[in-house]
Write a structure and sequence with these properties.
Blueprint lengths: L2 H15 L4 H8 L11 H4 L8 H20 L4 H9 L10 H20 L1 H16 L2
Helix pairs in contact: 2-6, 4-6, 6-7
């Protein structure tokens, strides 16, 4: 199995673990709206995700969220999944999962910032460099 196919299989398995439905997987990954839910099985069996910047950006953030959840709950895997499904006041009372699905890449980024302070610091540094100019 190629590295790209292994990544696709891992992402679908991760979203399965999080309790994400097929239509929501399509949305979270930024796959074309015409993607049929049954086609997701191909990603378990050697099909690579589209080589698309939007898809790969989402994958990077979703993997970052997964890593941050693992670090926050190293001894309780279920707690991480529960966090994704629990309403969060910092997300206007919505669940992190709903925020990611409804708000697309902006929502995914917002959830990652909630979990991963090092990513938030990275963004702050990038903003400071942009404002400082050349």
């Amino acid at each position: 199995m190629s590295e790209a196919a292994a990544l696709a299989s891992m992402m679908i398995s991760l979203l399965d673990h999080w309790g994400v439905g097929d239509r929501e997987k399509i949305s979270l990954l930024g796959l074309p709206a015409s993607t049929k839910p049954r086609s997701l099985q191909g990603y378990h069996h050697g099909k690579a995700l589209p080589d698309d910047e939007n898809v790969m950006t989402r994958v990077e953030h979703l993997l970052g969220i997964s890593q941050a959840l693992s670090l926050a709950n190293p001894l309780n895997e279920r707690a991480a999944v529960m966090w994704l499904h629990r309403r969060n006041r910092r997300l206007n009372g919505r669940t992190p999962l709903a925020t990611m699905i409804d708000d697309g890449l902006d929502g995914i980024t917002r959830v990652r910032i909630q979990l991963d302070c090092s990513y938030d610091w990275y963004l702050d540094e990038q903003r400071a460099r942009t404002q400082a100019g050349p």
